[in-house]
Specification:
- There is one protein chain.
- By secondary structure, the chain is mostly helical.
- The chain has a domain at about 20-60.
- It is built from three helices and no strands.
- The radius of gyration is 16 Å and the shape is extended.
- The relative contact order is 0.07.
Length: about 80
């Protein structure tokens, strides 16, 4: 098994942000010295993964238990 995994496919998507949020994103990107695409991907991944209601909804649609990425059940 390879130690380095193939990165996920990059898909183009256009979103519209409120002006204050757009400025905050630009400022934060300067702070961490990363691109807006990277910061947006990272932030959405972390934020959406924490949504308890979303996890419950998704599990009910899939008919599976609600497990976290580490394989442990979410509380």
């Amino acid at each position: 098994m390879a130690l380095v995994k193939k990165p996920p496919e990059i898909v183009g998507r256009t979103i519209k942000l409120d002006q204050p949020l757009s400025e905050l994103l630009d400022d934060y990107c300067r702070f961490v010295e990363c691109s807006p695409d990277y910061v947006t991907n990272f932030t959405l991944r972390k934020t959406l993964a924490r949504g308890r209601e979303y996890k419950k909804w998704k599990a009910s649609r899939n008919g599976t238990s609600c497990a976290s990425p580490s394989g442990q059940k979410a509380s």
